[in-house]
Amino acid sequence: MTFDTIILNSLLISLASILLDTIMGILISIKAKTFDVSKLPQFIAGNVFPYMGGLIILAVFANYVPDLAYLFYAGVALVTVKFSKEALIDKLKTLLI
User: Fold this and answer.
1) What angle do CA 40, 33, 89 make, to 5 degrees?
2) Closest CA to 11 of 82, 64, 84, 77
């Protein structure tokens, strides 16, 4: 049982962009002095895990059902673009200004 390297690499890149966005969001809230540790689990459960879990499930299915690979690649592309734009442009500007 091996995992297709293209699927695995795509998944890892997308998960890294989600984590980068989350970390930068936490840093921004710390900088703005609005960080609340008690709200962090709810944020992660509602805004991070659904994306990560959905992509992981699609990756597993795409690995074993080749017809679903296109759905997985589309999902990875959309999620990565969403989180990359926010993390790399908007949040980076906020952190540096």
Assistant:
1) 75
2) 77
DSSP-assigned letter for residue 32: T
Mean of all residue pLDDT scores within the chain: 91
Range 52-64 average pLDDT: 95
Q: How many structural domains compose the chain?
A: 1
- What's the predicted TM-score (pTM) here? 0.87
Which token pair is 96? 């540096």
Angle between helices 69-84 and 49-64 in degrees, nearest 10? 150
Structural domain of 75:
5-96
pLDDT tens figures, 18-52: 999 899 999 999 999 999 999 999 999 999 999 99
Cα separations in angstroms, 86 against 35, 61, 63, 65: 19, 28, 29, 32
